[in-house]
Amino acid sequence: xxxxxxxxxxxxxxxxxxxxMGMTGFGDADMYGKSDEQEAVATIHRSLELGGNFLDTADLxxxxxxxxxxxxxxxxxxxxxxxxxxxxxxIDDNEQVTWKINGQKDYVKKxxxxxxxxxxxxxxxxxxxxxxxxxxxxxxxxxxxxxLVKEGKIGYIGLSxxxxxxxxxxxxxxxxxxxxxxxxxxxxxxxxxxxxxxxxELGIGFVAYSPLGRGFLSGxxxxxxxxxxxxxxxxxxxxxxxxxxxxxxxxxxxxNMAEDKGITSSQLAxxxxxxxxxxxxxxTKRRTYLEQNIEASQIVxxxxxxxxxxxxxxxxxxxxxxxxxxxxxxxxx
Length: 333
Fold this sequence. Notes:
two-stranded antiparallel sheet, 38% helix, 8-stranded parallel sheet, alpha/beta
């Protein structure tokens, strides 16, 4: 796989990563269907065989079960993987998510120790602030993360779902290596808000989660009934009647273009992101889809291809919010 620099701080990764969130359940809800630990571990191993050694997780996923799954998968091969995890959603000592964001210095230190233990490692390659604590100056949170770099517990600092203003404040305290936000043909808020422009100016990398529009762009969803009963996507606006049918029409147009090129709609959507110098981290828990996604890293789109995609889903297209009202209120835009 092609390797790329993520930001200007020295981190080199494949041009496509593996989002691991869906490999484990989350409380009573399913994250993209039922989990299968054996297949998930096999998927992580297959990814490494193909050169895909950039894994993305978070303490929130489970909570903790996702990090523990990764620990099992990378056992004996830790040095061959690049691990990114996150903190910020407050998890109490009973392993319950409080649904508050905590960016306090003490909590940062508590969180990293917990993640190191769960991942069974003594360092984390890339450590993200999962969400901005709007009650704490970001300089305080990033200052605590900077201490972790000095202590050798984390290699690089990342932020997630933050505004240009927050990025600039954080970067002034300690160089930020990456920002991770949702980005796809169906979700381009960071582009509209100028965040990507700010990252380019500061030499910060951009990692795109949900690059397939939370599965929409795979073409495998034709009805809400295609989603498992407990699937969290049933509760977000993008999958509601007001947007669903319009989104299906967009997907069909993308599928027609992909068919003409002899690739899948997922591969086309991923290749579009990669062409922008952005690293997508499509989530999958099956080897079949993993292999298809990694193949997308080799696809080269022409200027005409890119223009055609932009005409199908122009910047500013309303495909529906990616989260419910509560979660949208926690984004830093």
